[in-house]
């Protein structure tokens, strides 16, 4: 009997205390613990275009223009692993490539972001279209998770409504999710472009993108560690500029400690910048006739 009474007291006592506080008009203090996870983001006004970045390099507008995009940024770190964040690695690689292109001259360069800022996926490709770019390159670093920490190697993605394999489909799902905040899409596809013209334009852009992707693998050679089948395709939102050849380069896996350290090193950035700079120059040289 005494044991049952103790159990009832344990159940009723908290309720009685709360009821008493309510009757007396007192409030139970709520600890701050657990509230620091809230992230507040300033979103642009609906319909407002993001500002265009500066174009660096030759002042001659006839020179080819490449827009280079460092994936993720701001509140969105991208993939993480072994103390590394994709947004930081991608930005460092992009800055190294920009510097290499500018030092060699002859090509104009614009970056979608040059700092730790957030851009919606469609804003990135829209920058390339609005600037009249001849080429769009988005740079990322993947993660295979702790259970597959040994996976390594770079891969090059072009746009396809049908993913080339299950891994490509999974990557598209992860990257496309970066265009949402709490499940709400930040951008949508424009319906003002004629469907037939859009299809023809996009087919041509995809053919050019496939050519550039092959050049990346060729010029990367032994300097970059590629996966066994580096040329892949997926329905990636960031590649959906209908009239700009667009490629997404996955520089490697930051879930692999050795690869993450290599990508973060000066030697790794130099190998990336040198290889991609050559691929870009060969691509533009071919298209110049």
Word description of this protein:
By secondary structure, the chain is an alpha/beta fold. The chain has one domain (65-180, 195-287): Zn-dependent exopeptidases (Aminopeptidase, 3-Layer(aba) Sandwich), CATH 3.40.630. Helix content is 41%, strand content 17%. The protein is built from 7 helices and 10 strands. The strands form 3 sheets. Strands 4-1-5-10-6-9 form a 6-stranded mixed beta sheet, with helices on both faces. The protein has a two-stranded antiparallel ribbon with strand order 2-3. β7 (180-181) and β8 (184-185) form a beta hairpin. Mean pLDDT is 83; it is low at 189-194.
Mean pLDDT: 83
What would you say the CATH architecture is? Answer: 3-Layer(aba) Sandwich
- The SSE order reads HEEEHEHEEHEEHEEHH
Instruction: Provide the β-strand percentage band.
Output: 15-25%
The percent range for helix content is 40-55%
Q: What count of structural domains?
A: 1
Question: What top-tier CATH class fits best?
Answer: Alpha Beta
Largest beta-sheet details? 6 strands, mixed
- The end-to-end distance, rounded to whole angstroms, is 96 Å
By DSSP (H or I, 4+ residues per run), the number of helices equals 7
Layout of helices and strands, plus pairs?
Blueprint: H1 2-23, E1 65-70, E2 80-81, E3 84-85, H2 86-104, E4 108-111, H3 121-131, E5 135-142, E6 154-159, H4 166-176, E7 180-181, E8 184-185, H5 195-220, E9 226-234, E10 246-253, H6 257-264, H7 266-287
Parallel strand pairs: 1-4, 1-5, 5-10, 6-9
Antiparallel strand pairs: 2-3, 6-10, 7-8
Helix pairs in contact: 2-7, 5-7, 6-7
